[in-house]
Amino acid sequence: MYEAGCCLKNRFNHRWNVNAKEALKIQERLAKKVRISNGLSRLDLIGGADVAYSQTKTFAVVIVLDFKSLKVVARSFGVAPLVFPYIPGLLSFREGPALLRAFEGLKVDPDLVIFDGQGVAHPRGLGVAAHMGVLLDMPTIGCAKSKLIGEYEEPGAERGRYSSLWIGGKESGVVLRTKKGVRPVFVSPGHLVDIPTSASIVLKVCQGYRLPEPTRQAHIEVEKFKKADEAMRC
Question: Which range of residues forms the domain containing residue 101?
Fold first, then answer.
């Protein structure tokens, strides 16, 4: 059995109803609070978070799995009005309110959460995984399907091969091949983990698919959540 908990700590909460200029200032402030180190004392429960959109709403799902078996032990849903415009590099301001509502509803505390998005591999070092990690004060990893910023060499075709992702001469993550012959994913620490740990965990929870199981499961659930909401309005 897993203890019930409340993982929404919100140590550094902020307003979400802001314009792009204010959002940039918030990112710059929070980026200074990101800590890249292996702060994991245990890893029994691993979470995955993903987001979907309709024309007027943002939908979020957080899935929690047992790390050893990768069986789902908890899930939680969140929805919020879609008010922030699409601006590359500021996506966490579209996704954050719904994500936080999903985290509020969790009955267990994950030891780490993987987000479908960037960690510190971001122009200001604060992708959605880093942003949420700081707000929730928990270890987070960003695992994105595509590059937002940085330079890298294509990793080898075999599963587990990787290359470093460089931003301004600094290693900020890895480009990781999670399945032979399939396009790599872009992994970067969010908060309270380091680059090697992030890459190792993502590879370990990829079970024959390109994407890690926590975010793959979260993606399936959030699409169901969105479709159910749309069906209710028909």
Answer: 20-232
